Amino acid sequence: MAGAYRSRSGLAAxxxxxxxYSPLCAPAAAAQEAQGGLRITIVDGDEAILxxxxxVSREAIIQVEDENRKPVAGALVTLTAPRDGASAVFSNGxxxxxLTTDDTGRVVVRGIRPNSAPGKYAIRVTAVKQGLRGxxxxxMTNVAAAVAAGGISAKVLTFLLIAGAGAAAGxxxxxxxxxxxxxxxxxxxxxxxxxxxxxxxxxxx
Length: 205
Hints:
By secondary structure, this protein is an alpha+beta fold. The protein has helices at residues 2-21, 28-31, 154-176; strands at residues 39-44, 48-51, 58-65, 76-80, 88-89, 96-100, 106-114, 119-129, 132-143. The protein is elongated, with a radius of gyration of 39 Å.
């Protein structure tokens, strides 16, 4: 009887161990753990051109979504600009800032101002929420042109000015030389010709 009891006790222990470590009895939290990361979309502000002379501030709009493309509210979004070379500072006066997404999963980053160094650079964007993470970049360019409004660079502006001056000169030349030999065309103002005379020297009067 004692041997049978010990046998039954051993069998019960084995069955208990199997039930405890069976995947069917694993904690539900492990099975419900989210897979994948966060998706970051730069809605506005990417490929921006900033004038280092005017120091006009810009803004960026960032959208954070989960793997199912649903907005993620309450995510911490950190933007970090380069420490050296061409870069920008945020409204807090630093090269990094952290904001929280709203109910639509968005943050609006206001007050982005360029530093004094011209050139291209990338602002790193990181979003974090409950162990999930996503990264992206915002491409920007600092220019030293006196006029960079509307994204028009100094080279483009110079080309337009030269082209306009050339067109005006061509119009004047065509108007003056339309009849050959410099003759004025119909409706053109009369041409005044000054012919030097022969000087005469005589006694005072």
